[in-house]
Amino acid sequence: MANGGVPSRDMVEAECHRLGHKLGWRFLTCPERNIEIATVAMVTANPGGDKFEEPRWSVEKGCAYVIESWKDFPAGNQKLQLQVRRMFQIMNVKPEEALSGYLVPFRSPSWEDLDMKSDSICFGVDAWREVFRRTNVKTVVAFGKEIACHMTDILKAAPCSEHLARWGKQTIDVSRFGTGGRLIVLPHLSRFTLFNRPDPKPSEDAFRAALAEI
Fold first, then answer.
1. Is residue 1 part of a domain?
2. How much is the pTM?
3. For residue 142, what are the CA distances in angstroms to 9, 149, 203?
4. pLDDT tens, 14-51?
5. DSSP for residue 191
6. What's the CATH number where 175 sits?
7. DSSP letters for 24-62
8. Residues forming a β-bridge with 26
9. What are the angstrom distances between the C-alpha of 158 and each of 73, 132, 155, 211?
10. Is residue 2 part of a domain?
């Protein structure tokens, strides 16, 4: 990272202030201990929203996609949360046991509206490169496609295959990293409903096919 070492709450806060982000930040959506113990990770683009929220480094009581109430929905029942929960169910992984967080921790109304994008992405890439050096993760799921190049850079992953996601021309992309590691990049689930839709079978089968690659 710019000032060296693994990321910390103070480093994210300092960078948020330096870059002038006004809507707050959050980094991990799981307990911090998962950095050391998880074998599956999920990395998304950045936290969305157009109002300030208090900074959050981690979620020590579980997984944000399960225990938090978003947009006035009961805990874990907002559309994106339901999709992520279903995705982990297919993977046979408990959400609270996965490493999960945002590539760029700084909140913005959308990825396109992220201020100081280049510097913000550089910070996130450096932060996650250090995080992954501390993990034993073998499967990484990332969404959406706008962060694919950054995730392949972090993991030094090489493209392997594509699976039609059964949503227009969208694909589920698989890359390889390290010894037996795989990166699966999905279309962003906040825009493309691959799980928990009225007829999810084609998209879920495509995800299963990506998971089945050795």
1. no
2. 0.94
3. 23, 11, 16
4. 999 999 999 999 999 999 999 999 999 999 999 999 99
5. T
6. 3.40.470
7. -BB-BSS-TTHHHH-SEEEEES--B-SS----BS--TTS
8. 56
9. 39, 16, 9, 16
10. no
208 found inside a domain:
yes
- The two structure tokens encoding residue 186: 């999905």
Instruction: Give the bridge partners for 139, in sequence order.
Output: 40, 182
Identify whether 3 is part of a domain: no
Give the number of domains in the chain. Answer: 1
Kindly state the tokens that stand for 213. 């690659």
Least Cα distance to 21 among 102, 103, 104 occurs for 104
pLDDT in tens, 202-212: 999 999 999 99
Domain that holds residue 64: 9-212
| Token pair of 110 as six digits | 């959308």
Cα dihedral sign, 43-46-49-51: positive
Regarding beta strands 171-177 and 139-143, do their DSSP bridges make them parallel or antiparallel, or are they unpaired?
A: unpaired
Closest to 183 measured CA to CA, from 145, 139, 213: 139
- Of 74, 146, 152, 141, which is closest to residue 112 (Cα–Cα)? 146
For 90-140, give the secondary structure using H, E and C.
Answer: HHCCCHHHCEEEECCCECECCCCCCCCHHHHHHHHHHHHHHHHHCCCCCEE
